[in-house]
Specification:
Layout: H1 20-41, H2 46-54, H3 73-86, H4 88-107, H5 112-124, E1 128-131, E2 149-151, E3 154-165, E4 172-178, E5 188-194, E6 198-204, E7 216-227, E8 231-232, H6 236-277, H7 286-313, H8 317-320, H9 323-351, H10 353-356, H11 365-371, H12 380-391
Helix pairs in contact: 1-2, 1-3, 3-4, 3-6, 4-6, 6-7, 6-9, 7-9, 9-11, 9-12
Length: about 400
């Protein structure tokens, strides 16, 4: 069965009033209102996602020539931080959507099918999910067991996906698979699958300590009779190195920065309230607050420096594939994911029992549980192992302003 990517695109809808920051803050207000319920019930942040669509923030990365706004990675990172302060799950859904969209924008412009798909994403505010994990290989996204099986000009795919975040709610899934049945596990491609082209059979339920609203259930994914044009022909190894790695580490880091900055703001408000009760005395938590603020500034510097390096290298495949660039991005992830946990814990130590308790103006339990996922989202040990291998062949420059 052939399925056209779009029979007719809807008429272009103008962007809502205000700049990107103003639009994201309106979404954040809606997300914050429902964040505790999303966490408590382990449900999809439907209200925040509806607001993201209303503000037309899902299509901002699509080039203007295809109906988007051509937003940069830095602009999207800023929005991730704004949303991270309000609802970690909603922010992570937004980040993961744009991580996948970055792969399409960077590598899909030579494909008429994928250009039309991007037009649809911008026009219809389609939500994109990712399927890179798989039973038998776990979180090793650079290997696949499932394969694209081509017959004529169509293909079928069956994948035991151990995790697909918000897979049941997504309009589009980008899935990795071996190029063909005889291909090596590392010879992968990226396949675009529209929701109405596939079946998803839930095989596990996402019941976790934090990030509960991402609804990262396991699924048996099946697709059959789809046009081969939906397969991006560029090797996934290049897609991962030149867009996905950078987008993942930088946008995740921005979400974690948002969570951490919220925690420090709560700690600051607590200490200031204590100071007002006893004028002339420095509250006992003030020193811990200073430490947390110091750590937050270091975290921000790491994320911002990574974004600057990415923006400078963008459009240069050699620069994006360089060993030094990969090591830099790996270091951003492993550094800020640990800093985020440390900062929220420091903030909690400042506000004490008022932060440990739910339902107070200083509650930080949800933020702490959410941010504990940071070192585990592609486990830091896996990333450090990758970095260790790269360091075996890297030549250090010893310069301050380069890798």
């Amino acid at each position: 069965m052939h399925v056209e990517v779009a029979a007719a695109l809807p008429a272009a809808t103008p962007a809502p009033a205000g700049d990107l920051d103003a639009r994201a803050k309106r979404v954040a207000e809606q997300a914050a209102r429902h964040a505790d319920a999303v966490d408590r019930e382990g449900r999809f942040p439907a209200e925040a996602v509806a607001a993201l669509k209303a503000e037309r923030l899902f299509g901002i990365q699509v080039p203007r020539s295809l109906g988007g706004e051509g937003a940069s990675m830095s602009e999207i990172a800023e929005l991730c931080a704004v949303l991270g302060r309000a609802c970690s799950a909603a922010a992570m859904v937004f980040a993961m959507h744009h991580i996948k969209l970055a792969s399409l924008v960077t590598h899909g412009l030579d494909s008429a099918w994928h250009c039309t798909l991007m037009e649809r994403i911008a026009a219809e505010q389609m939500l994109i999910a990712s399927s890179t994990t798989e039973a038998g290989i776990g979180g090793d996204l650079r290997n696949s067991l499932c394969a694209v099986e081509v017959e004529g000009d169509t293909f079928r795919l069956t994948k035991e996906a151990s995790v697909i975040s918000y897979g049941a709610q997504a309009d589009l899934i980008l899935a990795t698979a071996r190029r063909h049945k005889e291909a090596a596990t590392s010879d992968q491609v990226l396949v675009a699958l529209l929701a109405d082209q596939i079946t998803l059979e839930r095989t596990s339920v996402w019941d976790t300590l934090g990030m509960r609203g991402t609804c990262s259930d396991g699924f048996l994914l099946k697709a059959e009779g789809l046009p081969v044009a939906q397969v991006l022909q560029k090797p996934f190894a290049e897609i991962a190195a030149q867009s996905m790695l950078a987008a993942s580490h930088l946008l995740w880091g921005s979400v974690w920065f948002g969570i951490s900055s919220y925690a420090v703001d709560r700690a600051r408000a607590f200490v200031q309230a204590e100071a007002r009760k006893k004028p002339g005395q420095v509250p006992p938590g003030a020193l811990r607050l200073a430490e947390a603020a110091n750590e937050l500034q270091a975290m921000k510097s790491t994320v911002v420096a990574g974004l600057a390096r990415y923006e400078a290298a963008k459009g240069d495949p050699d620069a994006l594939s360089a060993i030094g660039f990969s090591i830099m991005l790996n270091n951003v992830k492993t550094t800020v994911s640990v800093q985020a946990v440390d900062i929220v814990q420091r903030a909690l130590s400042v506000v004490g029992i008022m932060g440990y308790k739910n339902g107070t103006p200083f509650s930080l339990g949800r933020q702490l549980r959410d941010v504990l996922s940071a070192p585990l989202m592609i486990n830091n040990d896996r990333i450090l192992s990758n970095t260790a291998n790269l360091l075996l062949v890297q030549k250090g420059s010893g310069k301050l302003l380069s890798a």
